[in-house]
Specification:
heterodimer, A: about 170 residues, alpha+beta, Alpha-Beta Plaits, 2 domains, four-stranded antiparallel beta sheet, about 25% helix, B: about 575 residues, alpha/beta, Rossmann fold, 3 domains, six-stranded parallel beta sheet, 24 helices, 18 strands, globular, Thiamin_PyroP_enz_cen_dom (chain B)
């Protein structure tokens, strides 16, 4: 199962290496990872997506992360009511003939066209991963030249009114 | 002309500098402030400023020079294990530092408080593959509790304090401080902070009362309780509390390899070590128990055997200061995060009326009496187990014993009965050959008046035997006993049992002359080949006021029994009694 785990860390040198090294040597495969600053100076937040089946292994993962001296807080927010977003840049083949067609696809996704050249367009899309996935699927037939995804960053929602029961998808 | 000028200028500068403190001076002072009494070190290019500062300083600690950096770190481990104080190591950059890697990993696995200072090339050339440069931070991140590279000299005192705090508190472990050469040369002009705050490191000392209550409730209803005591009891200095608890409820106690001595080995409730080469009684007690109280052990695979057969009927309570150990290998019903002493104190304060478990106790003790550790005496050569018993008797069970890894280690664990904690110094988790001799150096330096015996294998001895010179250098009265079977005994044992006697590269029938070696190193040296001479030889060695080496020729093909074969459960031990192997 894909899990979203967030870790609040002290922004000391090598902290990312410590955390990713820990995961790899304990046998966890990171699907995506995002790191960046927070509202507090010197504190960063790491959001990972890892694929782990057993509950015991997830517990081990969070405990091992928490054991790191630079790690202040660890949360497995997979089952929380949350907002999760990623950003994706797509360079898609676009001839003058297909440009308007592509822009018609992009619009309902509230994605934006950032750059237009003779043979291609660059599209920026932000959203939950399945939305990004859907747009990629639609653009694939035109020919994707380059694609770059940031990976998920996530927050728990202010109110945790009810737990989401469908754990299998990353519902936002 | 130009060089002369440069030299003059340098002299002038150094004269000016004498009134100032350099980073190296700050480092030495910081060590002194930590009340360090022994430092294990080896000089080299990148630590020249530190060694110069050491030479000039009035620091109160002793500096011990070993003959190889691996010797330093194992000596520091031996020191830390026996004294409970942090072992301090200084090595130079590059090869000096990488030679420490095995020992740092060993200390990490066995949770030993070690603070390592490594030299590093100057910050200006870090990352350029400079002479004797190695990325020590990258190399040691997975094998340390924490590590630092000093990038500003004013951080140095704080980092030293933090490092000692991290190494010695919570679950102890090694901490590395990488000091670039320019930092130790730099003149300190700014005042520095020594206060530190580690918001991400707050070990839980006091256990949750609710979990203690659950544990004591489980005690109330348990019919077949057993205690497993690990090295955590040693670190927490909780042996007396454990004894009180175990005696109060008359619970049989077994230990891990590293927990030997945390509960007196000669106590009637003691079942000895559990696990792969543990006692039948200990393994069966865990197998049949309905309540297993693990205090400070980490359920290592050599202890548990096949996990599905480990304590299959037991409610498992696990007291550990490291929450990540709880539930890692064995499903735990009652997790108690905290210091072993604090937990035991609270458990001792809680009175519970237990079910009568005398029937269980009798059963466990019957196993203990019916299937003790056994061996067959040889007619001509020395039986290794008997040899250990003679060392035990000759030292009246009070020696500090260090070992390498392998057959002799297991025989020492089985036949030397440790009545006190911190007396058995062995490489448990990492299983490091060559650990015994240097560890004995550290142990002897930490406990000058104690008898220290290094029981080593002929294979392991050859991995660090240069440290015999360290013994001679400081005239340390360590007694080194080579349990010599001209083989890598444990490898050979596995090849015999599980690889149809294909002794691939495990026979050392071309060993050096250990007697000549011992003499070359200036040790009082003996060779003993028959049992009738063993006691006399031991006595001579122990009476000698200085290092002694005994080359003891044992029965070559002897095996360690009983044994849990790989992949088997602990209840499926082989060789429990003679003729059952």
């Amino acid at each position: 199962m894909r899990r979203i785990i967030t870790a609040t860390v002290q922004n000391s040198s090598g902290v990312l290496n410590r955390v990713t090294g820990l995961l790899s040597r304990r046998g966890f495969n990171i699907e995506s990872i995002t790191v960046g600053g927070t509202e507090q100076e010197g504190i960063s937040k790491i959001t990972f997506v890892v694929d782990v089946e057993e509950e015991r292994k997830v517990e081990q993962l969070t405990k091992q992360l928490h054991k790191q001296i630079d790690v202040l807080k660890v949360n497995d927010i997979t089952h929380h009511n949350k907002v999760a977003r990623e950003l994706c840049l797509i360079k898609v083949v676009a001839t003058p003939q297909s440009r308007s067609e592509i822009s018609g696809i992009v619009e309902p996704f509230r994605a934006r066209i950032l750059d237009i050249s003779k043979n291609s367009l660059i599209v920026e899309v932000t959203g939950k991963p399945d939305k990004v996935e859907a747009l990629i699927d639609l653009l694939t037939p035109y020919g994707i030249k380059e694609l770059s995804r940031t990976g998920i960053t996530a927050f728990t929602r202010g109110t945790q009114s009810k737990q989401i029961s469908d754990y299998q998808t990353l519902i936002v | 002309m130009k060089t002369e000028l440069a030299i003059k200028e340098a002299q002038l500068n150094s004269r000016v500098e004498e009134d100032f403190m350099t980073g190296a001076d700050v480092l030495i002072e910081a060590l002194d402030n930590q009340n360090v009494d022994t430092v294990f070190g080896y000089p080299g290019g990148a630590v020249l400023p530190i060694y110069d500062a050491l030479h000039k300083s009035n620091a109160s600690f002793n500096h011990i020079l070993c003959r190889h950096e691996q010797g330093l770190i194992h000596a520091a481990e031996g020191y830390a294990r026996t004294t409970g104080k942090p072992g301090v190591v200084i090595a130079t950059s590059g090869p000096g530092a990488t030679n420490l890697i095995t020992g740092i990993t060993d200390a990490m696995m066995d949770s030993l408080p070690i603070v390592v200072f490594t030299g590093q090339v100057s910050t200006a050339v870090i990352g350029t593959d400079a002479f004797q440069e190695a990325d020590l931070i990258g190399l040691t991140t997975p094998i340390t509790k924490y590590n630092y590279q000093v990038t500003d000299v004013k951080d140095l005192p704080r980092i030293v304090r933090e490092a000692f705090h991290i190494a010695t508190t919570g679950r102890p472990g090694p901490v590395v401080i990488d000091v670039p050469k320019n930092i130790s040369q730099e003149i300190v002009t700014e005042a520095f902070e020594t206060d530190f705050h580690l918001p991400g490191y707050q070990p839980t000392i006091n256990p949750n009362p609710l979990q203690i209550k659950r544990l004591m409730d489980a005690m109330r209803t348990a019919k077949k309780p057993v205690i497993l005591s690990g090295a955590g009891v040693q670190f927490a200095k909780a042996s007396e509390d454990l004894l009180e608890f175990a005696e109060k409820y008359r619970i049989p106690v077994t230990t891990t390899l590293l927990g030997l001595g945390t509960f007196p080995g000669t106590h009637e409730q003691s079942l000895g070590m559990a696990g792969m080469h543990g006692s039948y009684a200990a393994n069966m007690a865990i197998y049949e128990a309905d309540l297993l109280i693990n205090i400070g052990a980490r359920f290592d695979d050599r202890l548990t055997g096949a996990i599905q057969h480990f304590a299959p009927n037991a409610k498992v309570a696990h007291i550990d200061i490291d929450p990540a150990e709880i539930g890692k290998n064995i499903e735990t019903h009652i997790p108690v995060v905290g210091d072993a002493k604090e937990a035991l104190k609270r458990m001792n304060k809680t009175e519970v009326d237990c079910e009568d478990h005398s029937e269980w106790y009798e059963k466990v003790m019957k196993n203990k009496n019916d299937a003790p550790f056994w061996y067959e005496r040889s007619d001509d050569l020395i039986s290794p187990q008997w040899l250990i018993e003679q060392i035990y008797e000759e030292t009246e069970g009070r020696a500090i014993v260090t070992t390498d890894v392998g057959q002799h280690q297991m025989w020492a664990a089985q036949f030397y009965k440790f009545d006190a904690a911190n007396r058995f110094v062995t490489s448990g988790g990492l299983g490091t050959m060559g650990f015994g001799l240097p560890a004995a150096i550290g142990a002897q330096l930490g406990s000058r008046d104690d008898t220290v015996v290094a029981i080593v294998g002929d294979g392991g001895f050859q991995m660090t035997m240069q440290e015999m010179q360290t013994l001679k250098h400081y005239n340390l009265p360590v007694k080194v006993v080579i349990v010599n079977n001209e083989a890598l005994g444990m490898v050979r044992q596995w090849q015999e049992k599980f690889y149809e006697e294909r002794y691939s590269e495990s026979l050392l029938d071309n060993n050096p002359d250990f007697v000549k070696l011992g003499e070359a190193f200036g040790a009082e040296t003996f060779q003993v080949t028959e049992e009738s001479k063993v006691r006399e030889t031991l006595r001579k060695a122990f009476e000698h006021d200085g290092p002694a080496l005994i080359d003891a020729r044992i029965v070559k093909l002897d095996l360690v029994f009983p044994m849990v074969a790989p992949g088997k459960g602990n209840h499926e031990m082989i060789g429990v009694k003679p003729c059952e192997e």
